[in-house]
Amino acid sequence: MSITPSQTIGPFFAPVLIRPGLESMVQPATRGDRVTIAGRVLDGDRAPVADALIELWQANAEGRYDHPEDTQEKLLDPHFHGFGRACSDADGWYRFHTIKPGPVPGANAVLQAPHINVTIFGRGLLNRLLTRIYFPGDPLNTHDSVLNAVPSARRSTLIATACAPSSETTLRFDIVLQGEGETVFFSV
Q: Hey, which bits of 30-168 come out as E strands?
């Protein structure tokens, strides 16, 4: 009987899994408030992580996922499918163009704050990492069961920060893989 050793993920994302345009989740006819999410993937020494793969999965502006198991009686948007993928560049930067999602039902049908689900793959990681991006100042943040399950001292790692005003709202969300200020990751 042989045992296969574990292998780390990557580095092969950009040439194999990324196609131009996957970072732009919106089309001209997509409903909802446009937002750009940009940030850096950083290691425990705050050095940039190049070639990390970041995937986003989110509900549309109505709060409905484009998925057969989401049977809410909310409108689907044929111009928004809620999925995006990007790689970090040599300086660790990534960027997505999307919309602010509507609130979705959580446990006991209580609405969750608008959020974006994030998956990170990268060299040195044995498993994918899962986190969320919450929107700064959203009133539903104070009652979101997932956000409030995180110790208060660490919640800020899940809330994007507003950048300088532009024609489109830009939010910064850095992903810190370990060490001081490490992003909260979830076991799912």
A: 34-42, 53-57, 83-87, 93-99, 115-121, 129-134, 161-162
The secondary element (H helix, E strand) that includes residue 145 is helix 145-149
Structure tokens at 29: 């006819």
What pLDDT, in 10s, does the model give residues 13-70?
Answer: 555 556 677 899 999 999 999 999 999 999 999 999 998 999 999 999 999 999 999 9
Place 168 in a pLDDT band, splitting at 50, 70 and 90: low
* DSSP state for residue 53 in the 8-state scheme: E
Tokens encoding 137: 């100042």
Dmax (CA) of the chain: 61
Closest-CA residue to 168 (of 115, 117, 95): 95
Q: What is the pTM of this model?
A: 0.88
Under 8 Å between Cβ of 119 and 111: no
Taking a C-beta distance cutoff of 8 angstroms, is the pair 35, 103 a contact? no
